[in-house]
Amino acid sequence: MPHLLRIDASARLSGSVSRDLGDVFAAAWTARPGHALSRRDLARAPVPHIDQPTIAGFFSPAEARTPELRAATALSDALIAEVQAADALLITTAMYNFGVPSALKAWIDHVVRIHRTVAFDGRDFAGIAHPRRAIVVAAYGAGGYEAGARFAAADFVTPYLRHVLGFIGIPSVEAVVIQATNADPAGLDGALAAARVRLRELAMG
Ligand SMILES: Cc1cc2nc3c(=O)[nH]c(=O)nc-3n(C[C@H](O)[C@H](O)[C@H](O)COP(=O)(O)O)c2cc1C
Description:
Layout: E1 3-8, H1 17-30, E2 36-41, H2 52-58, H3 67-72, H4 74-84, E3 88-94, H5 102-111, E4 118-120, E5 125-127, E6 133-139, H6 158-167, E7 172-178, H7 189-204
Helix pairs in contact: 1-7
This protein binds flavin mononucleotide.
């Protein structure tokens, strides 16, 4: 049964463009026979930042892991288990200060982990995450992030997520980005309609 893990990162629980578009993908996905969905909402249930014991646990060999170190990595273990149980990821996110919300970055710091989602032989890295696809839905308040425009060099959301998801071994990352969400809402209608069409197509793929 194809299983989608949906991760939401906008701090807005209502009026969020990225969440609303994520709903479109999720509805099309779950309408397909046998397609399952689970969710992790990083605004409703924030993941704490990693701390010193977590990092010590990450880098301790299994035989050296004390109960304290095991406890310190238990959340990371659980978050990684969710990822490894999924065939596809849907990440919906806002742009905050040109990057991803810190809630999403905190999740990434638990999930991108040596020997769990990334193999490392002392020289080379190889992604070992199970999902074969990721769909990123991102909302940016300003416009001008396309090539040659004023903020072209300032998009640290979609290129970053593409890189990180590729690093853990997810071969296909599709991004649907809506820009200028803070501008005149009427001007967004066409872009939102096109994004909905694209997301329904992606959910069929
Ligand atoms: C704290 C904060 C920082 C933001 N920083 C940026 C930014 O750097 N660039 C930008 O284009 N929009 C920025 N925005 C606008 C959001 O990206 C925009 O409102 C977007 O639609 C949020 O996603 P959502 O609609 O899914 O909540 C910021 C909004 C907030 C609340």
